[in-house]
Structure formats: structure tokens, C-alpha cells
Amino acid sequence: MHDAPFILPAALHFDVTSTYGLVDALGGAAAVASICSTAPTEVERWSITGRIPAGWHLQFFGEALFAGKSVDPRVFGFNTSDRAAQGLSRLMWLAHRATIDGGADAA
Questions:
Q1: Domain boundaries of the chain, sorted by first residue
Q2: Got the DSSP string for 53-74?
Q3: Which of 20, 44, 94, 101 is 20 to 30 A from 36 via CA?
Q4: What is the value of pTM for the model shown?
């Protein structure tokens, strides 16, 4: 177990930095609505307000990772100093490194 907090590399770039960007990365409002069994207009509202209902954060995080996209934890409402945000960022960074180093199975 690591005692020191994970410090993000200064050059870490997130593919997705907004709720709108996340919906777009997951295939658009209709595709996300299908995942959630809701109306595309509801998903469009999330894009406009910038708020995804908390019950969908983990699902969308996993969907984005599966699609090879990294998501800024602030999209899910985390403050950059939150331990959970640092943990999510670390997972995305490690997944990105594994891809660079020879594929997702290299991790």
C-alpha cells in the first residue's frame, strides 16, 4: 500500500474534459440514453447543465476506459485534490501507459 499520494504527471492530458465531451465520446446522446434506458433529451440536458447523475459515474467511467478515452475526474464532480479524483486519474494514467507500452494486456 502506498502512503504517499499519487501525483499526476504534469503533462497528463485528458481526452474528455466536459460532460458534453463524455457524451460525445460515448457515441452521442442516443447511445448514452440507450445505456441508461432514458430519453436522449435527458442526456442532452446533462450535457447542457454539465451534471451527470451520480448513479451513472462508474458506468460512464468504465465505458470511457473501454473506448480508450481518459476522463478528467472533474467531469464527475471531483475536486482535483480529492483522493478519489487522484485515484481515478491514476487508473487512467496506468491504462494509458499500458497501451503505450504494448497494449492493454501489458499492464
A1: 19-106
A2: -GGGHHHHHHHHHHTT--B-GG
A3: 94
A4: 0.75
